[in-house]
Amino acid sequence: MNWDQIQGQWKQFKGEALQNWGRLTNDDMDHAEGDQEKLEGIIQERYGKSKEEAHREVEDWISKREPH
Asked: Rounded to whole angstroms, how far apart are CA atoms 1 and 47?
C-alpha cells in the first residue's frame, strides 16, 4: 500500500491506526485527516519520539496494510 491509498480510505484505516498506536484518540485521528505528516507529528507528541522515529513507524505500518 501507499499513503495515497490510505488517505483515500482514511475512515477505514484510522481504526487500525488507533489499534497500532494506543495512546492516540479519535480526536487525534480526526485532526490528522489522513495526512501522513500530521499523523507523524501526533505520534511524536504522544510518544515523545523523534521525527525520524515517528516517520519510520508510520512507513512500517503502511507497508503492512492490506487494501480495503
From this structure: 25
Which domains occur in the chain, in start order?
3-63 (1.10.1470.10)
Rounded Cα distance, 59 and 31, in Å: 19
Backbone angles phi, psi at 66, to 5 degrees: -105, 145
- Could you tell me the pTM of the whole model? 0.91
pLDDT digits (tens, 9 = 90+) for 21-64: 999 999 999 999 999 999 999 999 999 999 999 999 999 999 99
For 33, the enclosing helix (H) or strand (E) is none
Alpha-helical (H) ranges within 2-67 are 3-8, 10-20, 26-32, 36-47, 51-63
